[in-house]
Structure formats: structure tokens, C-alpha cells
Amino acid sequence: MMRCMRLDLDYEGTRFHGWQVQPGVRTVQGTLEEVFLRVTGETVRMVAAGRTDAGVHARGQVAHVLTDSRLDERALLMAMNSLLPPDVVVKTLRDALPTFHARKCALEKRYEYWIWNDPLPSVFGRRFAWHIKGPLDVDAMRAAAQVLPGTRDFSSFQASGSPEGCNPVRTVRCVEVRTPAAGTLHIVVEGVSFLRHMVRILVGTLVEVGRGRMVVPDMEAVLQARDRRVAGRTAPAAGLFLMKVCYPEEAAQG
Q1: Which of 86, 105, 124 delimits the end of a domain?
Q2: Could you say which of 31, 35, 193, 235 would form a disulfide bridge with 204 (CB–CB 3.0 to 4.6 Å)?
Q3: Is the backbone of residue 14 left (phi > 0), alpha (psi -120 to 50) or beta?
Q4: Which listed residue (53, 118, 137, 227) is catalytic?
């Protein structure tokens, strides 16, 4: 009988062209599937909770795979990690219920966007944060972030290239601007699902508020416009992390 197995993953997205398999380029999905083939002899399809874009990182990605392999969980976990490159790690690998689906069963995703706000760049953070030299008004950014949660049309925060007929209505649970250390901003966005580049455009628009180029009431006007041209720039991919995917316990456990 075919097994459904859940994988919890970390990866650094810098050298990956996103999650999804594409011809001729290095992707997370393609790398995992190649290693799984080497370990088990099976050609499989890994399905992720979210298809992260090129350059985006994950500290809590979840995927599932259907397999005929009889290798026990730990043996498969250790074998895969011995062959994977250093920029992707399978943290846990376990049997799940046959009905578990990494994307369809997900209840909520949490993303974090990291900003380094200092006149000087960070040598060690350059691959993981957007460097903004000028001062940012964090209080204004926090006030603007409070406008965003709810179930509403986020067309203004949807990048071109989205699938035709894609429903722009999404539910955002919360948007928080945190300052865990001097010069460091973490923008936390939690929601059910997101449009193409939606989190990065939200961040880019909040940064416009922080720079004083937009004011807090402009955020509601941007939402109401349903026009990508009125929102801020798309923040660079390097600062974005998929941090967590939440599931109902009965779906996620085998």
C-alpha cells in the first residue's frame, strides 16, 4: 500500500529558482525529487504547502510525497540529508494520514520579512534582509499595518503574471512590525493564502509609509483602488521567509 509521508523543510532560497520544478534551473522541488530517486529508486512528485518564489527562504516549509518505499522514517530522513546540498535540510520526515495534503490541508501560513535598517550594510545578513539605509518611521508602519487584516480584495497587492481568473479576495489574520534588535525590523504576515508576490508588495508599501512617501490613510486608499500601480514596490525576495504552516492536528498526524 502506498504511503503518504510528510516532510518539514528548511532551505536558503538564494541559489534556488523557487520551489517548483522548471526545466534547466535549480529548484527546491527538483532537488528533493532527485535525492528521493537516488535513495529509493522511485520517481515521485513532492507537493509543498506553498510554492515559494526564486530567492525566497523557508524555515517552516511542509511537503508531502506518496511512496511505495518500505524504508523506515529515520533511515529515509538520514539518507536524504546525507545527499542533499547544504542549502536545504529535511528536519522531520514521518508517515501521515492517507488524506494529508500539504497544500489543501493547510489552515494558515506565517511569513516574516526581514529588513536591515542602518546606514551601513550587514556583511552576514546581506542574503537574508533588505538593506534600507535611510530612517524608517516604525510607528507609522505599525499603524498602516493595522489597516490590512481582514477578508478583502487584495488586487492592489497582486503581481502581474498571476493565473487568469485568480480570485483576489484573501484573508489576512494579522500584520505586525517588530523590532527585535537595533536596526532590525521583522514584518510578520499571517493568512490563509496569498496572491503572487502579495507579502513582498505589502512590505514594499509599508516601507513607503516608513519613508514618509505615503501616510497611514493611504493604505486604505490603496486597498480600495484595486490597482497594483498605486501600491509600493515589490520588496526584494532575499528578505522573505516562510516561517510556519499550520494544520489541523488530525490532518497532520499519522
Answers
A1: 105
A2: 235
A3: alpha
A4: 53
**12 contact partners, CB below 8 Å, separation of at least 6:** 57, 87, 88, 127
pLDDT band for 250, please (50, 70, 90 cuts).
very low
Q: How many CB atoms lie within 10 A of CB 5?
A: 21
- 30's grid cell: 527538483
Question: In this predicted model, what pLDDT tens digit does every residue of 119-173 receive, in sequence order?
Answer: 999 998 999 999 999 999 999 999 999 999 999 999 999 998 777 668 999 999 9
pLDDT digits (tens, 9 = 90+) for 95-109: 999 999 999 999 999
Q: Of 77, 105, 133, which residue is a domain's last?
A: 105
List the domain range (segments joined by +) for residue 45: 3-105
CA–CA gap between residue 132 and residue 223 (Å, rounded): 25
Concerning whether 218 is annotated as a catalytic residue, the answer is: no
> What is the C-alpha to C-alpha distance for residues 131 and 77, in angstroms, rounded to an integer?
36
Specify the amino acid at residue 181.
A
Residue 3: C-alpha distances to residues 52, 96, 254 (Å): 25, 8, 10
**Residues 151 and 170: beta-carbon distance below 8 Å:** yes
Q: Tell me whether residue 248 is in a domain.
A: no
The number of folded domains in the chain is: 2
153 and 225 fall within a common domain: yes
